[in-house]
User: Which sequence fits this backbone?
């Protein structure tokens, strides 16, 4: 139900980074939180382990959303995030952060279906620090998830470790 509410919020294209994270918390994380916690409970885990699995789900949901934004922002041709003004974290960053090409980036948005305009806008995502910002967020969430996972006593931690590592591998 929370994910459905999040989907509803997502299609409203709420402006600003605080709304971005509000949508992520409502749309992306509940699915992973619930899945991991219910799986832990079904597997006979203690309440403490189930709670830690929930916390991992928050991080997994955020990682997946940020990775999705990276993929969508760097895709060619321009996808819906560009054409519909979706609240993509990279595009939001390049629009709202003070950097030398902010004005040019905003000017390119109405022309985004032109391959040259898209290529220039995507280059601005790199030069403005938008890609680096998302990489930083991904690394920090991966490290936080790794700390949680390392502190858990699981009968077989390998599936969870492999799941976490698969997110890190997708960045390479």
Assistant:
């Amino acid at each position: 139900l929370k994910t459905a509410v999040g989907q509803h919020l997502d299609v409203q294209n709420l402006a600003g980074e605080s709304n971005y994270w509000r949508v992520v918390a409502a749309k992306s994380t509940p699915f992973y939180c619930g899945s991991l916690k219910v799986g832990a409970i079904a597997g006979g885990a203690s309440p403490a382990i189930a709670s830690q699995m929930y916390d991992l789900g928050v991080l997994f949901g955020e990682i997946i959303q940020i990775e999705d934004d990276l993929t969508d922002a760097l895709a060619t041709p321009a996808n819906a995030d560009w054409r519909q003004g979706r609240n993509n974290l990279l595009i939001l960053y390049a629009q709202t952060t003070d950097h030398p090409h902010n004005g040019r980036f905003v000017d390119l948005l109405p022309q985004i279906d032109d391959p040259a305009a898209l290529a220039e806008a995507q280059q601005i995502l790199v030069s403005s620090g938008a890609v680096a910002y998302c990489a930083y967020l991904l690394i920090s969430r991966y490290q936080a998830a790794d700390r949680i996972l390392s502190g858990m006593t699981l009968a077989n931690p390998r599936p969870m470790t492999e799941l976490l590592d698969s997110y890190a591998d997708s960045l390479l």
